[in-house]
Design a protein that fits this description.
globular, 17 helices, 2 domains
Length: 538
């Protein structure tokens, strides 16, 4: 007999669990990447080796974190709604087999492609160490995605949240330690980068083991045969899941495009334009290592930018099964409420960070990575702020469109955005006076286009957005937040002033949100202590 003891959560409860875990994971990640990229560990050059492999790995990780689980979540929630438990059982078993095969295939593909990829992008060949150390993570990510998707489809975000924290802690305890020890013993930053990637692979294994153990304690199969054959169900699952998986994959492939195109274009310019680029950055590095050095700085700025879509994608993941269920039932009011709720909280999270990057990008980079990195990376982060303003809404909008059955359109929007990104990368990075900044501009162009395309698609569905509360008020408060930080940072250039500016900006942001009456009681009723918080709102 089946045991189903998985507790369902509301949209805001699920969003709160995922968002809080994401914040915790990112804080832990800061304790990983900031010291990892410091001069006493990998430095900008070593971080460039690490980042290339990590950016190849990112699309796989995103699929395992949000792409494949979202597809499984949508399917499982649909079975639950239709009371087709047997089909849910069969689907789950099939997904476990398919994802195991996919993980092994991905592992082998990386082994095969490592040599040609490194040959094109890194004349030193040292990036290969990190690529090989990363490859086992693909298998464990794929296996984990099955369990994450099942729990999310049952509206329980806690196992996903816990597994993410386990993986993040493993990166710090294993990856960072291994990198420091390796660099100290060998003096080789490339080997240190590989050790850090090996720690990440170990973290994905531990995360998978937790999910598997948790699942075995909360669910048991009845052993009853599904009324449909495996072949029929596989076909159904592929039709439903492919557009969702591809549209989620499209969002993460931005970093993959950078990994492949940027170093390729920069390496190609070293013969004719090395002097111009070296003088521009006052670099004494050789033409073989300068592209990796610049890519390392770009990766530091991109890491901060990527905080925003990572935070807001959690809101979209939590909202998808709830919006899907309400949409299937034809509960229009519930669908509109959920859409506006997820967009409002996404705006509240994304906008202040985006304006902070735009207005005080250089002081933030200096605070976290030092003045040398900030001299180049600060300008990158300012441009990434524009991209973040759009990316923060793009990811939850993608989940909303998927929930409304518009996954094909979401995929098309992202496909066009990625074409724009690739074109801007290839064209503008080839200009010596633009070089690495072409990739940053390409990211901004991609996300701005996709956000507006998603909004147009959503408007055409006929569901009404409360633009004033969901977008305008958070935008106004975030602008005031950014201006406050900028004015304070102009007083002096120091880490203490930057921290004070961030703190004051946060206070101003909250004050403007409250004064503008951005929230109402219904926004908080499902959160822990939400009823008490809602009483404070008139």
């Amino acid at each position: 007999m089946k045991e189903r003891v998985i507790k369902e959560q509301t949209l805001t409860q699920g969003a709160a669990v995922l968002l809080l875990s994401t914040v915790l994971v990112k804080l832990i990640g800061a304790f990983f990447k900031i010291p990892l990229s410091s001069d006493i560990c990998l430095g900008d050059l070593g971080f460039g080796y690490f980042s290339f492999a990590y950016d190849i790995y990112t699309p796989v990780y995103t699929l395992a974190l949000s792409g494949i689980p979202v597809a499984i979540s949508k399917i499982i929630s649909g079975f639950s709604l239709s009371e087709k438990a047997d089909e849910a059982d069969t689907a789950l078993k099939i997904f476990k087999r398919v994802l195991l095969i996919s993980g092994i295939a991905g592992f082998l593909l990386i082994l095969i492609l490592t040599k040609p990829l490194v040959f094109v992008t890194d004349k030193t060949g040292k990036t290969a160490y990190s690529m090989l150390a990363m490859s086992p993570a693909v298998i464990f990510c794929c296996l984990s995605s099955v369990y994450r998707g099942y729990y999310e489809g049952c509206r329980n975000m806690t196992p996903t949240a816990v597994s993410n924290v386990i993986e993040a802690l493993s990166k710090v305890l294993l990856g960072l330690t291994a990198a420091f020890v390796t660099v100290k013993l060998t003096g080789n930053a490339a080997l240190g980068a590989a050790a850090a990637m090996a720690g990440i692979s170990a973290g994905t294994l531990l995360s998978y083991l937790y999910l598997r153990f948790s699942f075995s304690k909360t669910y048991k199969f009845a052993g009853k045969k599904s009324v449909k054959t495996d072949k029929t169900l596989i076909k159904k699952l592929i039709i439903i899941s492919l557009p969702i998986v591809f549209s989620s994959f499209a969002g993460s492939i931005v970093s993959f495009i950078d990994a492949v195109t940027v170093k390729w274009r920069l390496s190609g310019m070293m013969t004719d334009s090395f002097g111009t680029i070296a003088q521009m950055y006052q670099s004494t590095l050789s033409g073989d290592t300068l592209p990796t050095f610049l890519y390392g700085i770009r990766s530091k700025a991109f890491t901060l930018f990527n905080l925003i879509p990572t935070f807001t994608v959690s809101l979209g993941i939590s909202a998808l099964p709830i919006i899907s269920a309400a949409f299937v039932k034809g509960h229009r009011a519930e669908v509109e409420k959920s859409i506006n709720s997820v967009l409002k909280f996404s705006s509240v999270v994304a906008f202040p960070l985006a304006f902070g990057f735009m207005f005080v990008g250089t002081p933030i980079m200096s605070l976290l990575f030092g003045d040398t990195t900030a001299a180049i990376g600060g300008k990158m982060l300012c441009i990434y702020g524009i991209a973040a303003l759009s990316a923060g809404l793009t990811m939850p909008l993608t989940a909303v469109l998927q929930a409304l059955g518009k996954q094909n359109r979401a995929f098309l929007n992202f496909s066009v955005g990625l074409i724009i990104k690739s074109a801007v990368n290839i064209i503008f990075t080839a200009f010596p006076n633009i070089n690495i900044f072409g990739a940053v501009v390409g990211t901004a162009a991609c996300y701005v286009f996709v956000m507006f395309a998603h909004l147009v698609t959503l408007f055409k569905t006929g569901y009404k957005l409360q633009i004033k509360n969901t977008l305008f008020k958070p935008f106004l408060a975030a602008f005031a937040c950014g201006v406050t930080a900028l004015l304070i940072c102009r007083i002096s250039v120091s880490g203490i002033v930057t921290v004070a500016a961030i703190g004051a900006a946060a206070v101003v942001y909250l004050a403007v949100l409250i004064a503008a009456k951005t929230f109402d009681r219904s926004d908080f009723t499902d959160f822990p202590l939400g009823k008490k918080l809602s009483k404070l709102i008139k």
